[in-house]
Amino acid sequence: MYQPPLPQKYQELTDIQADQIISAVKDRLAERMVILGHHYQRDNVVKHAHHAGDSLELSKIAARQQKAEFIVFCGVHFMAESADILTADHQKVILPDLTAGCSMADMAEIDQVTTCWDALKSQMDHPNNLVPATYVNSTAAIKAFCGQKNGICVTSSNCRPIFEHIWDHNPQALILFLPDQHLGRNTAFNMGVPLEQMPIWDPYQKNGGLNSSQITHARVILWKGFCSVHQEFTTQQIEKARKDDPAVNIIVHPECPFEVAQKADYIGSTALIIKTITNAPASSTWAVGTEINLVNRLAEKMKKQNIKVRSLSNTPCLCETMYRIDPRHLAWLLDSLATHLDNPNENPLPNTIDVPNNIKHPARLALQRMIDITSAAEKK
């Protein structure tokens, strides 16, 4: 999406000046506005957030803020879409920079997925066994597709219980997993599904690059998508980390490649990474395979317990699109919000994320199914 250049006066703001604008609007609007900051966001943005967390957690928080008319989502586009899907009609979700997207989400286009769906069903003896499941790191259109086809969303925290639920209710189910191949593969393999039963569908090849036998014997069809950040972690980095420090603990996100996940000591979602390291023994050392802003924040936090935390990679693994949101964009957006409220007829609210109702409603179905199943699993 197109983001107009920041007006010159905002480009020239010092950090202190940007902070002053942000704080002034926060004070003025109080409960009418909530700022959400994703874990991967830079520190000088997260410090202004009323709530920090992962994408779905923040969207659920937004839905609970019934007094908040304006949800400022410091994250990427699909996250703001999820917030708009889950929040009430009177709430407006706004994104500080419209170019803050997600390359993984963009790897599954709705026309490609529809073609894949039709091709798979035409080659199955029992087409009703096909179940679409999409990572929340996907566009609203893909979530809506899953909602329309009796499918579901997953997160990196609940992917396994969602898979278990699908197979408990239909042992013959074939899961079409979108758009991150690594999360799907790492989850299913740890549940005992062999790699040969998880072929990759390449949308740029005829029939996804698969033959009928591969589809017939599959339990999961993995979409050929990946996270550009987590793709950067390698087994060579793990070997070097252990050579440099034999006592080091390796923990990686399930968006990392299969070989990396297999060599790591621990694999888990952002929330699990934070929990594991926060509860780690004093004086332990950790090399973490996930986005650098989160790693650096954990490293600073754990110094008090003499726990050493560093990135698994020696080069910064940064979510570049997330990094497009900075204090100047946030200051501009909040200033624009204040100006809009002063004179709404002459000053439209910029950067609103408004998912059309024909997409919003089925997408909400897919998200709500996930929330309900996860809640039920947690109560067991």
Strand and helix map with partners:
Blueprint: H1 8-11, H2 15-29, E1 33-38, H3 43-46, E2 51-53, H4 55-64, E3 70-74, H5 77-86, E4 92-94, H6 103-106, H7 110-122, E5 130-135, H8 140-148, E6 152-154, H9 159-169, E7 174-178, H10 181-190, E8 200-201, H11 212-216, E9 220-223, H12 235-244, E10 249-252, H13 258-263, E11 266-267, H14 270-278, E12 285-289, H15 292-302, E13 308-311, H16 327-342, E14 352-353, H17 357-379
Parallel strand pairs: 1-2, 1-3, 3-4, 5-6, 5-7, 7-9, 8-9, 10-11, 10-12, 12-13
Antiparallel strand pairs: 4-14
Helix pairs in contact: 2-16, 4-5, 5-17, 8-17
Give structural notes.
- The structure is a single chain.
- With 380 residues, this protein is α/β, with parallel strands linked by helices.
- Helix content is 45%, strand content 14%.
- It contains 17 helices and 14 strands.
- The protein has a five-stranded mixed beta sheet with strand order 2-1-3-4-14. It has a five-stranded parallel beta sheet with strand order 6-5-7-9-8, sandwiched between helices.
- It is globular, with a radius of gyration of 21 Å.
- It starts with 7 loop residues before the first helix and ends with a helix.
- The relative contact order is 0.15.
- The model has no long low-confidence stretch (mean pLDDT 95).
